[in-house]
Every structure is written in C-alpha cells, then in structure tokens.
Amino acid sequence: MKILISNTSDAPLYQQIKEQLTDAILKGELAEGDLLPSIRAFANDLRVSVLTIRRVYDDLEKEGFVKSQVGIGTFVSTGNTEFLRESRRRLVEQKLADAIRAAKSLGISWQELQDMMKILFEEE
C-alpha cells in the first residue's frame, strides 16, 4: 500500500492519509480482513505523528471502513462498502450541482462545462 503525502497540499495530513486509505478500500486494493499496519509502524513509515494515524484509524472505524481489535490490530471491514460508496456518489453529485449553478451564473454553456469537466477528469 502506497500512501503519498504532500506538504504543499491544503488538506491536512490526516485527511490525505484517510482519503487514500478509503479510496484503496473502495477500489478493492485493500480487501475485507486485510490487516493495516500498526499505528506506530505506519506513523514511522510516513514520518508523521502517531496521533495523526490514530485519528485516521478512529475516523475510518467510525465510518465503517475498518474494525480495530485491541491487542490484535486494525482490519479492513467492507461490510458497509456499498453504502459508503453511495454516500461518496451523493457527495460528488452535490459538488457537481454546485459547479453547475456556478457555471450557469457565469453564463458558461453546457458544452463549455462538459469540455472543462472532461479536461479535469483526464488530468487526474
């Protein structure tokens, strides 16, 4: 599992790590039952505070992506994956609706908006 952290990003470190782990679970790169690195080992690998990784794991557990077992470790839990994937779709739909409203208010045509989205989508 490769986690890339950017010091120049506006997103906090914990959010960057959390989003990459979430994406890996939703894409199936991390499967149900996979053991995540220990908090200390993961923090050392990424050169971040153990508190940062603790926050990531706690948030992921609250959202149903992982399950922690005291003394054993933190495991991927995909039982809720479809619900979580649908939640992320709704978030994207909301952001797209905001973008469409902004485009309309600026007089940007549907074709121009589609062209912009295609370019942005292909850059990622």
CATH homologous superfamily of the largest domain?
A: Winged helix-like DNA-binding domain superfamily/Winged helix DNA-binding domain
What is the ordering of alpha helices and beta strands?
HHHEEHH
- What's the CATH topology label of the largest domain? Arc Repressor Mutant, subunit A
Radius of gyration over all CA atoms, rounded: 18 Å
Q: Examine the secondary-structure arrangement and name the CATH architecture of the largest domain.
A: Orthogonal Bundle
Shape label: elongated
**Which class do the helix and strand fractions yield?**
mainly alpha
Extract low-pLDDT stretches: none
Strand content: 5-15%
Strand order of the largest sheet: 1-2
- Number of helical stretches of at least 4 residues: 5
Give me the secondary-structure topology.
Layout: H1 13-26, H2 39-46, H3 50-62, E1 66-69, E2 73-76, H4 81-105, H5 110-123
Antiparallel strand pairs: 1-2
Account of the protein in words:
By secondary structure, the protein is mostly helical. It folds into 2 domains: 13-76, Arc Repressor Mutant, subunit A; 81-123. 60% of the residues lie in helices and 6% in strands. It is built from 5 helices and 2 strands, in the order αααββαα. The protein has helices at 13-26, 39-46, 50-62, 81-105, 110-123; strands spanning 66-69, 73-76. The chain has a two-stranded antiparallel sheet with strand order 1-2. A hairpin with a 3-residue loop joins strand 1 (66-69) and strand 2 (73-76). Helix 1 packs across helix 3 (50-62) and helix 2 packs across helix 3 (50-62). The longest helix has 25 residues, at 81-105. The chain is elongated. The chain starts with 12 loop residues before the first helix and ends with a helix.
